[in-house]
Specification:
It is a single chain. The protein is an alpha/beta fold and about 270 residues long. The protein has one domain. It has 7 helices and 8 strands; from the N terminus they run αβαβαβββββαβααα. The strands form 2 sheets. The chain has a 6-stranded parallel beta sheet, sandwiched between helices. Strands 5-6 form a two-stranded antiparallel sheet. β5 and β6 form a beta hairpin. It is globular. The N terminus is likely disordered.
Amino acid sequence: MTANPPNINNEYNSVLNLRQFELAQSTKPFKARGFKLQRCNRCLIADFLCVCNDANPIAIDSRFLLIMYKGESIKPSNTGRLIAEILPNTKAFLWHRVDVNQLLLDAIDDDSYESYLVFPALYAEADRRVYHDFELNWSKLGNQFTINSDNELRQSEKKKQFIILDGTWTEAKKMFRKSPYLVNLPMLSLSDINAHPYLLREASRVEQLGTVSVGLSILNLLAEHDAYQSLLRLTQIFTHRYLSSKARNPQNLIKLMKLECDIKHSN
């Protein structure tokens, strides 16, 4: 079994704890693009653009569980930590094909939660249970529900847990294929209808949503309005300031202009 990350003075953000663990285990310094930039140690944006004071944590019954590919938690562009900033009960674990963290397995098997693996339906095996967001009216039943084998909603005392594979899409597909402990979980497939537009990495297919886009879509699906608005606001600010720190790149300037226009129209 892999060593478990220590609880390193990062309050409730499990992604930041995982980042500190990965940095401590690394044999050489991590150098992202712009590594010479003086960054905030928490939000990883330039010190003068720090977004830490813009986070407004919200408590909800449902839980996100992030399984992160090696090095993902260290990247300044990672948005999984935004979910963890807003939803303090978020759990984050480092993926390993062989030495699976027992705490990860325990979290997946937690009997107080009904777990769903969030991943596009087109990657599902023929006999896999797959549910689509546009088919569900979860918000009408509140948080306490589950889905039976006939795709019917029924009341349940269990809370919901959404498992997200966090990495590039090549890495996410590898985690999907090579994680036997995920095979028996029902899948939730999100459409691009509610996809969040503020992407820091370009996707090659519409179903390939970024991590924070997945979080926003699920919060919207659950009608968790306060948490949705809090995460949306932090994501807008984070993306705006992240792109501002890289604005000399013409593509980033275009993204920044579009983002400023969207923020203006949302207010």
